[in-house]
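Researcher: Let's do a round of design. I'm pasting the structure tokens now; please hold your answer until I've finished.
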């Protein structure tokens, strides 16, 4: 399969256009382990530990800074960059990079990652110059519209996620712990080709489903429990995010009723993912549909968010953003209700906005499956 590396020159050129339009001498992009989507977008590299910084001049010279020497043999081939240096003192490393690239004395520098950059590294960037110009908004706008290759990688990530969810009915039974369920889905995602996990796999049962996000515990599954599994495989850096809810044993009438309402809300909200519809309209529609069944008060989070190099932090917030959807955008839709004394039911799928009907790329069954 063609590597995402083929797209890096085009991405860097689009960023240079922003730098030139703002009359800046260069740009510094900061990321760290767990939040490196911006660095990876330009380099195809994300650190396993610690920070990483990509420095780019308006003329196109660049240097990638990593924390550990042993990261260099990985960073160079995945990025195609020759100028990769490592060091534990990132402020000093950044200062040396600015000097080497002719950016040490200039005032007009851009910064992407202002929301996460440590103060000590920011000081190294800002020392003796005007405050860097925050370009995060313009940069994230570039990440909003995914390319066909990015769509392909997201489909593969979703397929590996589906494989794990589809394995649950034949592998999970009463008496297993949530930790064991999480270990099972991690194994199945890896077996399906996943290269990592977008976030720690969630497996919540019984009363633990009354919160939308949970880390798995040693609680054992009991007959009648709801089991909510929220997982995402990674394929070449691109992250899926899919949730399914199961019942241990035969579902009750109320479980079937609420499940059907959430499932129908998901389907109707996904169908709205078309060009020209405002992102926040999807959240409002999901909220209103649940409200018609007196369930909106239990819907405590946004209806979805972007997927790509990250999940929850990827651009597009379906509750807040007023932007119109455009072909190429990718996000998840995840209506859910969390009812005290009853439990939580969430169903989540991933979607690509096309010129016409939305393309749903996650395909695990939406039927209520007893375990």
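Researcher: That's everything. Go ahead.
Model: Designed sequence:
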């Amino acid at each position: 399969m063609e590597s995402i590396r083929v797209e890096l020159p085009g991405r860097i050129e689009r960023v240079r256009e922003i730098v030139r339009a703002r009359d800046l001498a260069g740009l510094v992009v900061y990321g760290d382990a767990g939040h490196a989507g911006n660095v990876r977008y330009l380099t195809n590299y994300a650190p396993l530990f610690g920070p990483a910084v990509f420095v780019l001049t308006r003329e196109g010279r660049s240097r990638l800074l990593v924390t550990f020497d042993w990261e260099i043999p990985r960073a160079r081939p995945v990025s195609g960059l020759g100028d990769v240096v490592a060091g534990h003192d990132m402020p000093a490393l950044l200062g040396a990079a600015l000097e080497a690239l002719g950016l040490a004395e200039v005032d007009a520098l851009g910064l992407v990652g202002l929301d996460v950059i440590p103060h000590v590294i920011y000081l190294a960037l800002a020392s003796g110059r005007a405050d860097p110009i925050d370009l995060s908004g313009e940069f994230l706008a570039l990440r909003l519209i995914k390319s066909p290759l990015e769509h392909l990688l997201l489909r593969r990530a979703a397929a590996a996620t589906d494989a794990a969810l589809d394995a649950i009915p034949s592998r999970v039974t009463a008496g297993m712990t949530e930790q064991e369920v999480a270990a099972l889905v991690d194994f199945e995602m890896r077996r399906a080709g996943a290269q990592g996990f977008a976030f720690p796999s969630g497996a919540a049962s019984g009363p633990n489903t009354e919160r939308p996000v949970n880390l798995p515990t040693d609680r054992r599954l009991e007959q009648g429990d709801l089991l909510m599994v929220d997982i995402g495989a990674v394929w070449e850096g691109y992250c899926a995010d899919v949730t399914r809810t199961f019942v241990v044993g035969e579902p009750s009438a109320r479980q079937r009723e609420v499940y059907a309402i959430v499932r129908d809300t998901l389907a109707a909200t996904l169908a709205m993912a078309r060009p020209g519809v405002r992102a926040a309209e999807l959240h409002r529609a999901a909220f209103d549909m649940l409200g018609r069944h007196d369930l909106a008060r239990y819907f405590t989070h946004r209806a979805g968010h972007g997927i790509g190099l990250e999940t929850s932090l990827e651009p597009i917030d379906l509750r807040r953003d007023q932007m119109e959807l455009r072909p190429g955008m990718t996000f998840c839709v995840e209506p859910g209700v969390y009812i005290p004394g009853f439990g939580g039911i969430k169903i989540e799928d991933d979607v690509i906005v096309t010129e016409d009907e939305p393309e749903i790329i996650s395909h695990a069954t939406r039927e209520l499956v007893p375990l």
